[in-house]
Design a protein that fits this description.
By secondary structure, the chain is α+β, with helices and mostly antiparallel strands. The chain has two domains: 117 residues, Aminotransferase class 4, branched-chain amino acid transferase, N-terminal domain (D-amino Acid Aminotransferase, Chain A, domain 1, 2-Layer Sandwich), CATH 3.30.470; 160 residues, D-amino Acid Aminotransferase, Chain A, domain 2 (Alpha-Beta Barrel), CATH 3.20.10.10. Helices cover 28% and strands 28% of the residues. It is built from seven helices and 15 strands. Strands 7, 8, 9, 10, 11, 12, 13, 14 and 15 form a nine-stranded mixed β-sheet that branches. A six-stranded antiparallel β-sheet has the order 2-1-6-5-3-4. A hairpin with a 2-residue loop joins strand 14 and strand 15. The longest helix is centred in the last third of the chain and has 18 residues. The radius of gyration is 19 Å and the shape is globular. The chain starts with a strand and ends with a helix. The structure holds 4'-deoxy-4'-aminopyridoxal-5'-phosphate. 4'-deoxy-4'-aminopyridoxal-5'-phosphate binds next to helix 5 and strand 13. The site of 4'-deoxy-4'-aminopyridoxal-5'-phosphate (PMP) has 14 residues, from helix 5 and strand 13. Pathway: Cofactor biosynthesis; tetrahydrofolate biosynthesis; 4-aminobenzoate from chorismate: step 2/2.
Amino acid sequence: TQVYLNGAFMAPADATISPMDRGFLFADGIYEVIPAYNGVLFRFEEHLIRLERSLAEVDIRNPHSRAQWRERCEQLLRANGGGNLSVYLQVTRGAAEKRDHAFPSPAVTPTVFMMTNPIAIPAADSPETAVGARAITLDDIRWARCDIKSVSLLPNSLLRQQAVAAGASEAILLRDGFVTEGSASNVFIAKAGTIATPPKSHAILGGITRDLVVELCHQHGLALEEREITEMQLRQADEIWITSSTKEVVPVIQLNNAIIGNGMPGPLWKALAHHYVQHKRRLCGL
Ligand code: PMP
């Protein structure tokens, strides 16, 4: 296994970071997770645009051009054998001389860390045998800028752990009675043939997979609305899906203790999963 730290490739044990790094002291950093299939980075531009936006929102200098990011990601994929891997990349504000909430001035060099992780075969690859996931609803306890892909993931981690402790795989979050997103995913519902997902705002991360699902629905004539979803609409949905770059589109068949639909992945999910896989195969030469 090889990881990348500040310009060099090395074994994970050799990648050492100062405890003065603001990523460690303040969770002052931004990250991305980019899937690669067959060694080909999927929706790479979209991930980089989001990275640039996140960095700009917290005023961390982007240390690389898009071409440099691509080259480094591809090199790391090759160093780890290619195939189906996700690239995790993180940029922190860097190591300051003393611990101070305010940014170091003059600015210090950002720390860049990257690693790869294997991607499990997603449910969408075999829609006929997919079984679906369980989710629970929880209060969204996070901050007011969830659109920034920050490494400050303590609330997300606490929420996901609560879901796991309850025997579920994801927490679907509610703020003031409305669905925001999952602890690490976006949420879609389907009711009477119409698909819905919350609009992009400061309350959710603008998921790359979310955007692709919206695009695929439009392309293939599936009715989709970007609108607020109430807790009641979530509970009464015919289908619930959660989306993320590494899990793609996962059907949820149980919410809290209630069965969703007939307890099986629904027909709209199957249709969408088919389009998603076709799209992925075409782009990645699978
Ligand atoms: N929301 C949150 C809070 C997430 O952490 C993630 C995945 N990192 C997503 C949504 C899904 O985003 P994407 O499709 O870009 O992976």
